[in-house]
Amino acid sequence: MARTQAVYYRDEKAVEPVFDFLDTLPAKRRAKISEFIDEYLNDRAPDAPPAEFPITSQVDGELRELRVRFAGTRYRLLYQRSDNLAVLLHGIEKHTGAIPRGDIDLARRRMEDFTRRMNASPRVPPRAAGRDAPAPRRRRP
Amino acid sequence: MDKLTIMARTAESAHPVSPVGSTAAEASDQWAARSEEYRAARDEYRAIRELRKKNWIAAHVRERRYELELTQQEVAERAGTSHSYVSKLERGDHMPTIPVLQRILRVLDEELLIGIERQLPDEEPEREVAPAPELAVS
């Protein structure tokens, strides 16, 4: 299986909620989080364990969070692996001790939607995956 | 509605929208294309990431100072050291002394802890971690 690739979940109206969340943040914060995504979710061996706490941690079952601190602010990106993809489902600024139930449920619903649409018949082919896509396998001569 | 939008709408109705959105790199490139400030910040974080491989203390101080929007000069003054000391520390070429690092970290609202590890045969290593001792000012 190819190495991991981080992607933004896209809903049926072509809205990418985590992209939009990051878009509302000041440029420096956005850059930090975006580089964190690249460093810790992209280009990992498919069977490698996730980056250790405090970088990532388990939220609920297969749902995990990427934890980013900027000065005094804590950001959390909820994501889940699906084959070689790390799907970015929901982003929040964290104020309380635990992630609110509503946010976890929202991420879960998005992941269910992601899986349902990936498995839809006829299966929607994943689009061309951008320049950070792992190199395609070479055909044997 | 322009022609491109109409074409996009038509294409969407024929083929459902893929749930796989932008890749991390595409999103980052899009922000970079739009904002000089984003490009500068991205370059800074990439430099810090490289620096971390060489010297994580240097990378930490540089990152924390950047996020608190302090200059090297400001940190140096508040920590009672020189601008060149902070600059060398952040380049990763110079290892700070414990008291100076402690003062610099306090300027950054952090506390220096020191850890010591002992390897024992057939056992987990033993660790001791505690605040750096205070030196009485002579």
Architecture overview:
Chain A has 141 residues and is of the alpha+beta class. Chain A is 28% helix and 27% strand. Chain A has helices spanning 17-23, 27-41, 101-118; strands at 5-9, 56-60, 63-70, 73-82, 85-94. In chain A, strand 4 (73-82) and strand 5 (85-94) form a beta hairpin. Chain B is mostly helical and 138 residues long. In chain B, 59% of the residues lie in helices and 12% in strands. Chain B has helices spanning 3-14, 24-34, 36-54, 56-67, 72-79, 83-91, 98-107; strands at 20-23, 113-118, 126-131. Chain B has a two-stranded antiparallel ribbon with strand order 2-3. The longest helix of chain B is centred in the first third of the chain and has 19 residues, at 36-54. Chain B starts with a helix and ends in a 7-residue tail after the last strand. The mean pLDDT of chain B is 90. Chains A and B meet through strand 1, helix 1, helix 2 and helix 3 of A and strand 1, helix 2 and helix 3 of B. Strand 1 (5-9) of chain A pairs antiparallel with strand 1 (20-23) of chain B.
Number of strands of chain A: 5
Structural class of chain A: alpha+beta
* Average pLDDT rating of chain A: 90
Per DSSP, what share of the residues of chain B sits in E-state strands of 2 or more residues?
5-15%
Shape of chain B: flat
**Order of strands side by side in the largest beta sheet of chain A?**
1-5-4-3-2
* Assembly status: heterodimer
Euclidean distance between termini CA atoms of chain A:
21 Å
Topology of chain A as a string of helices (H) and strands (E): EHHEEEEH
Taking the sheet with the most strands of chain A, its summary is: 5 strands, mixed
Taking all residues together, what is the mean pLDDT of chain B? 90
Assign a percent range to the helix content of chain A.
25-40%
Task: Give the biggest beta sheet of chain B.
Answer: 2 strands, antiparallel
Annotation, overall tally of beta strands of chain B: 3
User: What structural class do helix, strand and pairing data of chain B support?
Assistant: mainly alpha
Q: Low-confidence parts of chain B, pLDDT < 50 over ≥5 residues? A: none
Please state the CA-atom Rg of chain A, rounded to the nearest Å. Answer: 15 Å
String of helices and strands of chain B: HEHHHHHHEE
SS element count, helices of chain A: 3
- Any idea what the radius of gyration of chain B is? 24 Å
Number of helices of chain B: 7
